[in-house]
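Students often ask why inverse folding is considered easier than folding. One informal answer: many sequences map to the same fold, so there is more than one right answer. In these notes we will look at a single instance of the problem. The structure comes first.
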């Protein structure tokens, strides 16, 4: 690793990025440990940007799910309404948009996020750490199909006996 490269560390999730502010003089630090992962972004937007965005209270009926993806070492979800992306939780499978205030939709994550993250950690540069769910309709890469098993050879046929 050269002096310009920095170890990017583990793949970022909502729980490791959307952290509460530090303590203020004479006050204890805020405790966000009881806030579900999908709701952390709403608290973070409030304190970092001073923008009070209501936390969704319902799911959008019939809405297609949002697929979690990795972009430059961050687990992201993309809003189908406005295109905004934010870091997502892989344990709280809801996605809501802080920009257009869309209510919750289902978040689809890989069946084994640890395996996906291990694959990403093998790549040394953050810019190379990108992954799309194979079922995501927005996936720009066509997943490689499963290889077909080799065809079984036909059994040899006995030649007809000559009279």
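Output (designed amino acids):
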């Amino acid at each position: 690793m050269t002096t310009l490269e920095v170890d990017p560390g583990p793949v970022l999730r909502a729980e490791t990025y959307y952290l509460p502010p530090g303590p203020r003089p004479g006050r204890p630090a805020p405790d966000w440990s009881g806030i579900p992962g999908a709701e952390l972004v709403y608290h973070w937007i409030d304190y970092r940007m001073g923008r009070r965005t209501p936390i969704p209270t319902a799911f959008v009926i019939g809405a297609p799910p949002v697929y979690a993806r990795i972009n430059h070492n961050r687990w992201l979800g993309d809003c189908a309404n406005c295109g905004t992306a934010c870091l997502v939780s892989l344990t709280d499978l809801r996605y809501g948009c802080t920009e257009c205030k869309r209510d919750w939709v289902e978040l689809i994550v890989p069946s084994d996020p640890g395996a996906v993250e291990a694959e990403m950690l093998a790549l040394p540069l953050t810019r190379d750490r990108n992954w799309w769910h194979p079922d995501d309709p927005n996936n720009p890469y066509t997943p490689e199909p499963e290889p077909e098993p080799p065809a079984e050879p036909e059994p040899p046929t006995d030649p007809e006996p000559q009279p």
